[in-house]
# Entry
Amino acid sequence: MYNREYLSDGKSNSETYSSYESQASSRPENLVGFLRATYQLFASSLLAATVGAYIGLGMASVISSWYWGLVILEFAMLFGLYAVKDKPGINLAVLFGFTFVSGLTLTPLLSSVFNMPGGASIVAQAFLMTSVAFGGISMFAMTTKKDFSSMGKMLFIAVIILIVGSISNIFIGSPILQLGIAMIGALVFSAFILYDTQQIIKGGFSTPIEAAIALYLDFLNLFISLLQILASFAGNKSDD
# Structure
């Protein structure tokens, strides 16, 4: 349920996002305040990830050699974020640390795409498509009267299948399987944007940090899926 303390005046930024009372409220202004705080954190998270990716591209070989260590660190910081979500200051540091590291772990994929003919254009197209899809789906979720809450379990199962498929393909190395996983991932994370946005509106997240990280992960994974799809098709064209 929504907490109201982040709407009070005279608090520091970390207190604004993190110091809450566990009270339910259905007032429209409370929802607007929660959404504002959530999307501010979401936008800041995207910026931190962009900085991480930009720095990572300048040291791609180093990132590649430390890739799995960074992935482990990324997951550790994500779990840690939920543990400190109610601790002012620390939660913001962990949030932006996590999103920065997630930008670093994008380096191998981004580097491989940038090295393709028209690679910069492919990355730009993927980001634009992700942004348009995110905005459109979010607006639909906020305006539709249909309830998509029942999608939660199905989406969770879909993510587990995607993870298993992705891990399996590390050993199989099939471009066709990777393309299929990316296509399914694009659909799944588009649905997650719809689901998570409605959960935010209905009070399914206790803090804006939780809501922001859910939206960030949806956006990031949709971007990765679309980037892989576009890169795959571009690679097939160059082979013809």
